[in-house]
Amino acid sequence: MKRSLIILIGLFTNVMVSQQSITLQECYDLATVNYPLAKQSVLLDAQNQLEKEVVSNAKLPQLSFDAQATYQSDVIEVPIPNSNIEPLNKDQYRATLSVNQLIYNGGATDASLDVKSSQLKTKQKQVEVNLYQLKQKINQLYFSILLSQETHLLLKAKQEQLQAKLSEVTSGIKYGVILPSSDKVLEAELLKINQQLTEVESNKVSLIETLSSVIGQPLSASVLFQNTLVETVLETELNRPELELFQLKKDEIESNEALIAKQNAPKLLGFATGGYGNPGLNMLDNSFQAFYTVGVKLNWNVFDWNSNKKQRESLSINKDIIDTETETFKLNTNTELNQQQNEIEKIEAFITSDLEIIDLRKEVLKSADSQLKNGVITSSAYITELTNLYEAENTLIKHKIQLQLAKANYNVIKGQ
């Protein structure tokens, strides 16, 4: 019973492996998660969190410790005879601990935090843009594999047809209806097909390995690539992540403008200093003393030679530059869309004529098949017509895959 269960599990596993398949959308999703660049998003988030904590620390009390020992060549003396006031020692010592607390800085700290948030959004969107640009590479690999897959099936069909014809020819030779050695021509063609199958399979394995490295997912040579029809909506409205990136860059500039506007705001701080030294605050007491001071301090940069204004003007120019980059991107992308649409229409016209050619080739092959059976033509003539039909069918498959690729690229260019 246990042995039977193991066999059943093994059979089930083999069926699951043989049925392994993948779609184009799944390749997109896997690349977004597994491509090495995707890890940057988490790293950027962690980095930004640390930077924001550093900025937020400005709101916390700032502690500083100072200690010094000096020897002076001269000291202050009180020029009063018989005053009993001892002059200061020339060797002096002091240690202080200071606390500074920011009370008000015009919102500059919060503005700095806003800048950090804007920078994070911009960097993460840049990662998304870079990952999005992988889609066309995935399209090329996926549909090249799909073409190999369909070509392999067509070759197998041709192989089966030739093997069936070889049996007929062998029987015809036996009964003297068909010329001797006609079977050799068919056998040579079958060997040629085996070579073509090997080449197609080798190319497919190489393409699968490349795609596997891009999407970060191991793929076996037996995996089935789904030939799902790609739907497109021919419109010029763009939905690319680059457009969001341009807007985020402008948002980042605006947050920097807000920060610069607050940099010249008055800053109010409270402070306290405690210390121990010789002398202390009482310069007339020549001994070690403890001391402290507390107070508030106002700092206001009243005039900065228009540096602040010029910085904001520079940022405004940056926004204009981004606007020109946006318009250039839209123009180039719409041009690509038009080219891709023309490509789609051209391939659709090819497919229409391919179908007509195949119908004609089938009629010719049907006639050749009858003539071969009756010994009117040789196997070589039959193979020529069979190859012509195969090439026409192969061209149709190639055009259908190219149409799918063109539509997939159209969707990527548009941002669908």
Automatic annotation (TrEMBL):
Pfam name, any one: OEP
Presence of keyword Membrane: yes
Keyword annotations: Cell outer membrane, Membrane, Transmembrane, Transmembrane beta strand, Transport
The organism's place on the tree of life at top rank: Bacteria
Entry's localization field: Cell outer membrane
SUPFAM superfamilies in alphabetical order: Outer membrane efflux proteins (OEP)
Record has Membrane as a keyword: yes
Similarity annotation: Belongs to the outer membrane factor (OMF) (TC 1.B.17) family.
PANTHER family associated with the record: OUTER MEMBRANE PROTEIN TOLC
Protein name, UniProt field: TolC family protein
